[in-house]
Write a structure and sequence with these properties.
This protein has 213 residues and is mainly alpha-helical. Helix content is 80%, strand content 0%.
């Protein structure tokens, strides 16, 4: 049970570190929240989760046969670790540059929040790269515990999006124009450090698996 809880919270943390960086989904979430209120954020997360669940199922089916191949598992772990390391550095650099959260964007995207959540996911090149690297590694780890492991991973990952975009929608619906830079930067610094720790663990475990393979 301890391993499953670890999968849940680590996937939530890594998901949160990615969700908190401003991008297309954030911009659309703010716009939709102005039009439809608080529930726009959670509904967008549902839309975002639909293709992710489909992709996770497909990856699980495809990667299940590689569980006993230490070399393949190791290579995926190394690639995932490198991508995590890049993500940690990117977050740190963006904070140093003074990244902020603007809750005043009112651009009309012309979509409902559900479709917007789906489209901003599948149209983002970084999304498939994330799943082909970090996501693939997590699915391999989760499959060691069967389908329940994959469920813990997915719930943790989607919970990160729900927490962040739900918070954004709440603040927008309450008329808040920004989030405190000090708090925002502090959380991102912590995420950057912890993501770097996971990157090192991924790399170490990946190298060990390659050696054993």
């Amino acid at each position: 049970m301890g391993a499953l809880i670890g999968i849940f919270f680590s996937s939530m943390l890594i998901g949160l570190s990615g969700a908190m960086m401003p991008g297309p989904m954030f911009t659309v979430c703010v716009a939709e929240s102005y039009k439809k209120g608080f529930w726009a954020g959670p509904v967008m997360v549902v839309g975002h989760a639909i293709p992710e669940i489909v992709l996770a199922v497909l990856f699980s089916i495809g990667l299940n046969k590689f569980l006993d191949d230490k070399t393949v598992v190791g290579v995926i772990g190394i690639v995932g670790g490198l991508f995590l390391g890049w993500l940690a550095v990117k977050i740190f650099v963006e904070v140093r540059r003074g990244v902020t959260v603007d809750l005043t964007t009112k651009k009309d995207v012309g979509w409902g929040p559900l479709i917007a959540g789906i489209w901003t996911s599948v149209s983002n090149p970084g999304w498939i790269v994330w799943w082909a690297t970090i996501g693939a590694r997590y699915i391999l780890l989760s499959l060691n515990h069967g389908i329940i492991g994959v469920v813990f991973f997915l719930v943790g990952h989607e919970m990160a999006d729900l927490v962040w975009y739900g918070t954004v929608s709440f603040l927008v619906s309450r008329g808040r124009g920004r989030i405190s830079d000090r708090i925002y930067h502090g959380v991102l610094y912590a995420c950057s450090f912890l993501v770097l720790v996971f990157a090192v663990l991924f790399l170490i475990n990946g190298i060990r698996s390659v050696i054993k393979g």
